[in-house]
């Protein structure tokens, strides 16, 4: 029996090659997308799940509520760990992690003949305590990490770094000098960190050494730095909530809260670190669960759209199978047997599409991995989970696409089927087909609308004024604490004609560095319950970035904090309406450490991405913590200017590696996640439309074939070609319009929610919806017309002869 | 073999009720060859479909092998069909995707006949119908007469007690038509009961009894030969 089914299925599919190909191609496209999305989602969900204590490992975060809203941070005060270890034994093992975002590494030569080799790393130099190896299960190739990093100034290199620094040599026992501050002895080589961790590292260094590297390190409970974090495991049986309360209780002894201040240390599960943008992680890459849900939904929708094609084409051409069904029934086949037969046929189409998808996925995965900057694995035979997914997909698609057609076809009455009188079945199928086509159009239109809105928001990011110039400005990172060395060479630095302005500062206006402090303004002796963002920069900052002054003047040149500038938001929050009124007022910041007069008010500029609100800003001079040289260049001579900058830089810092980045590049990196989303939306919309068109094309060609006689009669009676095309099109126009009415509100709802994530965002204009509707209509009509025109131009006599 | 008592069939659409059969009382005995004749639309095919368990009567009783089956479910009817009935249609109704051999084999597959026996029975009936040399051809590759021979082979391969033929020569030229009728006649001689609907008096001549239908009612019966009864 089974063999007979297979035989008939194969011969039928071969005979209706056009129909089969439409189905296979459509399904293959849909399945490929869902397979790719599955791989992405699975990868994102796998972050740090491979540690044996993953389910009870946590990070300590800080949640604050201040005047300008909630603030979240993963940085913890430096003395906290010691207190935690002493008073909360149930939080064991616990470790500090300090992530230094790169640095300069000098390989000290074994003898004096050889020149030392210098390297610069841009990210992920991780300082860990021995407990790190108890808490996490990173691969170490048999090396005992605890032993290897038990001494001060020791380092474990990853294989990649070992190969880069010591090609063909044994690195163990050699010495690396980091940032010209610390000598680190290599104690071993470990495999590279896995891709799916939010604790990425290029090397692991003993934690004690970080105190010489981390310029922010101190013993105060009042300062935190987001690159300094605590992870711990909760002992089995211990109560998380109680432990959290206890920690806050103990900590409050060391860090008394001022009135109105709401601050709490909270425990975040390790497995959630990847999904919560508020706290971030060392990988600087989070993805929200909502985005993953959206991806999953898109994957499902694409398979759905392709399955709908299948249902539509199969029911539309059910008539062709009527005689066979009738005869099988006459010969005693029951409904179940016939359903099995037709489901098997669907299964074969799905299996073919699935095989094609596997090949397509193999081909497309490298591009997707590159686009998303992920290393996605796809080795089908060694991946039981993936095989299970494919099996589930095969069964689900087969049932979803095949069940209804099988039900319709197997339900034919044998006599009517033999006489091809299946009018009732056809009519029922027709209204279902209409509904499904509406569903397809709805999915397409929702995707088109989302694509346009995401694209517009991206354009807005690109073009919105941030309150400062970002073009033709380069940022050059400086070794910490050594800005003075280069500042001394400033006349030489500015001597090049292509250099228009220079400014030393802690960071450019928009950057990921945040320094916050409490303050007192004018006569208020009590500290305000909101903190201000400190921007430390020299007197040429406003000029370099073209930030306008609203009142007063720029502060004078100085090495320490003497005079202050504030921004408009600051004024608003202290209740000042007139910028002039703030001038000359006294400001005390950093406890009572720094004091000075406000000499000017700057126009608001954006401190971070457009996701966040502009914070109150206080600007002043403080040479010791400048970490960045910002240079405005003449664009056409940029190359020569950069060479000149490098020369001067190397004169000031002969042991460091010169490195620069264009400011607009670093700003566009704020939106990398959204850029990727925008691109994915575009790709998937195009694919959804393509699959939809394939189905529509097949459906219309079928309708045309069915109505050949009607077209013939109409033409004989004098119908024009245009009216024939209209005959076929009018139905689809109605369906597109119905879909439009459904798609509009759905996409508005979701995109409005998506835009809420951005403090600065576009308005969704009605034209977006009209454009999407018009585009869908155009695509649908073009597809329909191709087939309808063929019917319109056919010879009516031939059509009628077939009777 | 089969008996109908006051059999009625009505077709109801949204607006019109059409009566296809009115109080039909028909008795067919084992081994009989009955021809049903009448003008187009008189209800011949409807009657054949009910006898063939492809349709249910609206009222009346229908006995097949001494069982009242007019209220049988589709599944029960399907079981009776595959075990006891064979069908031959005017338009052959061969499955285009299957070869001659596979078409003939199909009823045995539904009857779950074992592989070896199936092969032997199919070969035997193909020989009997003189179509064995075409066993690997597809229906489209055969002439009308050959196609009908395949259809008859398929109808008798399961050794049905009753063979129903609906205008079996309607699509054939007279030479092929005669060939088919001779085949049916010889099957009847070997014991198969046959009920045949036909327009053709020549074909009806092969039957023992001719039942004339008009406007859904039996108006006369001509018994040709009593000898075998």
From TrEMBL, chain A:
Keywords: Cell membrane, Membrane, Transmembrane, Transmembrane helix. Residues 20-249 form the MacB-like periplasmic core domain. Residues 297-414, 683-796 form the ABC3 transporter permease C-terminal domain. The chain crosses the membrane at residues 20-41, 292-311, 342-365, 386-412, 432-454, 679-704, 724-751, 763-786. Its main location: membrane. The keyword Cell membrane applies. It comes from the Bacteria. The keyword Iron does not apply. It is a multi-pass membrane protein. It is found in: Cell membrane. This is ABC transporter permease. It comes from Rufibacter sediminis.
TrEMBL record, chain B:
The keyword 4Fe-4S does not apply. It comes from the Bacteria. Gene3D superfamilies: P-loop containing nucleotide triphosphate hydrolases (3.40.50.300). Keywords: ATP-binding, Nucleotide-binding, Transport. One of its GO terms (molecular function) is ATP binding. InterPro entries: AAA+_ATPase, ABC_transporter-like_ATP-bd, ABC_transporter-like_CS, ABC_transpr_LolD-like, MacB-like_ATP-bd, P-loop_NTPase. The keyword Glycoprotein does not apply. Residues 2-229 form the ABC transporter domain. It holds the Pfam family ABC_tran. PANTHER family: ABC TRANSPORTER ATP-BINDING PROTEIN YTRE (PTHR24220:SF648), IMPORT ATP-BINDING PROTEIN (PTHR24220). This is ABC transporter ATP-binding protein. It comes from Rufibacter sediminis.
């Amino acid at each position: 029996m089974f063999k007979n089914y297979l035989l008939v299925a194969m011969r039928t599919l071969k005979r209706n090659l056009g129909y089969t190909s439409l189905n296979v191609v459509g399904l293959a496209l849909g399945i490929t997308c869902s397979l790719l999305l599955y791989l992405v989602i699975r990868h994102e969900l796998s972050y740090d799940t491979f540690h044996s204590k993953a389910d009870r490992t946590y990070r300590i975060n800080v949640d604050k509520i201040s005047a300008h809203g909630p603030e979240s941070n993963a940085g913890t005060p430096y003395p906290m760990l010691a207190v935690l270890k002493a008073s909360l034994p149930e939080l064991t093992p616990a470790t500090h992690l300090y992530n230094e975002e790169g640095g300069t590494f000098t390989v000290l030569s074994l003898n004096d003949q050889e020149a030392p080799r210098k390297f610069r790393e841009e990210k992920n130099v991780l300082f860990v305590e021995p407990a790190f190896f108890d808490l996490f299960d990173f691969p170490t190739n048999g090396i005992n990490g605890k032993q290897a990093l038990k001494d001060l100034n020791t380092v474990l290199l990853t294989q990649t770094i070992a190969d880069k620094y010591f090609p063909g040599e044994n690195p163990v026992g050699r010495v690396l000098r980091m940032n010209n501050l610390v000598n680190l002895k290599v104690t071993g080589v470990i495999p590279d960190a896995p891709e799916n961790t939010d604790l990425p590292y290029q090397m692991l260094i003993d934690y004690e050494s970080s105190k010489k590297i981390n310029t922010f390190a101190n013993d105060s409970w009042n300062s935190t730095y987001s690159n300094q974090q605590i992870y711990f495991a909760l002992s089995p049986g211990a109560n998380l909530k109680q432990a959290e309360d206890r920690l806050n209780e103990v900590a409050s002894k060391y860090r008394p809260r001022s009135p109105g201040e709401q601050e709490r240390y909270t425990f975040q599960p390790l497995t959630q670190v990847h999904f919560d943008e508020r706290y971030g992680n060392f990988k600087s890459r989070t993805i929200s669960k909502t985005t993953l849900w959206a991806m999953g939904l898109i994957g499902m929708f694409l398979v759905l759209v392709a399955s709908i094609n299948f249902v539509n084409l199969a029911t539309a051409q059910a008539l062709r199978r009527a005689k066979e069904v009738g005869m099988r029934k006459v010969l005693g086949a029951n409904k179940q047997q016939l359903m099995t037969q037709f489901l098997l046929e669907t299964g074969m189409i799905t299996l073919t599409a699935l095989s094609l998808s596997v090949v397509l996925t193999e081909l497309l995965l490298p591009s997707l991995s590159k686009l998303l900057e992920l290393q996605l694995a796809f080795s089908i035979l060694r991946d039981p989970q993936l095989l299970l997914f494919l099996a589930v997909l095969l069964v689900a698609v087969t049932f979803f696409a095949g069940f209804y057609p099988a039900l319709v076809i197997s339900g034919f009455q044998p006599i009517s089927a033999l006489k091809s009188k299946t009018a009732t079945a056809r009519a029922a199928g027709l209204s279902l087909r209409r509904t499904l086509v509406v569903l397809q159009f709805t999915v397409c239109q929702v995707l088109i609308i989302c694509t346009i809105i995401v694209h517009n928001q991206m354009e807005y990011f690109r073009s919105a004024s941030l309150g400062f110039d970002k073009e033709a400005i380069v940022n050059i990172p400086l070794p910490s604490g050594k800005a003075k060395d280069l500042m001394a060479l400033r006349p030489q630095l500015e001597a090049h004609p292509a250099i228009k302005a220079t400014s030393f500062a802690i960071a450019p206006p928009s950057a990921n560095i945040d320094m916050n402090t409490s303050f007192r303004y004018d006569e208020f002796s009590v500290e305000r319950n909101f903190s201000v963002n400190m921007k430390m920069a020299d007197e040429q900052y406003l000029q370099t970035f073209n930030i306008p002054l609203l009142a007063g003047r720029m502060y004078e040149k100085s090495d320490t904090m003497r005079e202050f500038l504030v921004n408009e938001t600051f004024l608003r929050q202290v209740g000042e309406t007139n910028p002039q009124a703030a001038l000359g007022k006294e400001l005390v910041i950093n406890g009572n450490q720094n004091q000075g007069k406000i000499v000017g008010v700057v126009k608001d500029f954006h401190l971070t991405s457009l996701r966040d609100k502009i914070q109150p800003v206080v600007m002043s001079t403080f040479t010791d913590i400048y970490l960045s040289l910002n240079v405005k260049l003449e664009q056409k001579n940029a190359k020569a200017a950069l060479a000149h900058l490098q020369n001067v830089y190397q004169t000031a810092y002969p042991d460091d590696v010169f490195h620069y980045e264009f400011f607009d590049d670093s700003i566009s990196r704020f939106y990398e996640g959204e850029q990727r989303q925008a691109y994915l939306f575009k790709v998937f919309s195009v694919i959804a439309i393509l699959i939809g068109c394939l189905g529509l094309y097949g459906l219309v060609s079928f309708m045309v074939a069915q109505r050949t006689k009607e077209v013939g009669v109409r033409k004989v009676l004098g119908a024009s070609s245009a009216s024939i095309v209209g005959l076929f099109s009018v139905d689809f126009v109605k369906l597109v319009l119905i879909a439009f009415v459904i798609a509009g509100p759905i996409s508005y709802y979701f995109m409005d929610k998506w835009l809420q994530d951005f403090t600065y965002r576009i308005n969704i204009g009605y034209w977006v919806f009209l454009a999407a509707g018009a585009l869908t209509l155009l695509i649908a009509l073009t597809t329909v017309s191709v087939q309808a025109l063929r019917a319109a131009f056919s010879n009516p006599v031939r059509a009628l002869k077939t009777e | 073999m089969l008996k109908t008592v006051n059999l009625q069939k009505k077709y109801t659409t949204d607006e019109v009720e059409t009566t296809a059969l009115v109080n039909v009382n028909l008795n067919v005995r084992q081994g009989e060859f009955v021809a049903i004749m009448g003008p187009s639309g008189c209800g011949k095919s409807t009657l054949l479909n009910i006898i063939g368990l492809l349709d249910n009567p609206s009222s009346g009783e229908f006995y097949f092998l001494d069982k009242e089956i007019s209220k049988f479910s589709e599944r029960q009817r399907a079981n009776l069909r595959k075990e006891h009935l064979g069908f031959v249609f005017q338009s052959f109704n061969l499955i285009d995707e299957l070869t001659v051999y596979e078409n003939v084999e199909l009823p045995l597959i539904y009857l779950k006949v074992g592989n070896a026996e199936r092969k032997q029975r199919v070969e035997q009936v193909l020989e009997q119908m003189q179509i064995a040399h075409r066993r690997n051809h597809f229906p489209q590759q055969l002439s009308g007469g050959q196609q009908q021979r395949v259809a008859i082979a398929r109808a008798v391969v399961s050794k049905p007690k009753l063979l129903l033929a609906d205008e079996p020569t309607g699509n054939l030229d007279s030479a092929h038509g005669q060939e088919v009728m001779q085949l049916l006649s010889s099957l009847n001689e070997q014991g198969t009961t046959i009920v045949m609907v036909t327009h053709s008096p020549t074909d009806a001549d092969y039957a023992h009894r001719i039942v004339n239908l008009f406007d859904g009612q039996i108006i006369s019966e001509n018994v040709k030969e009593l000898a075998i009864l």
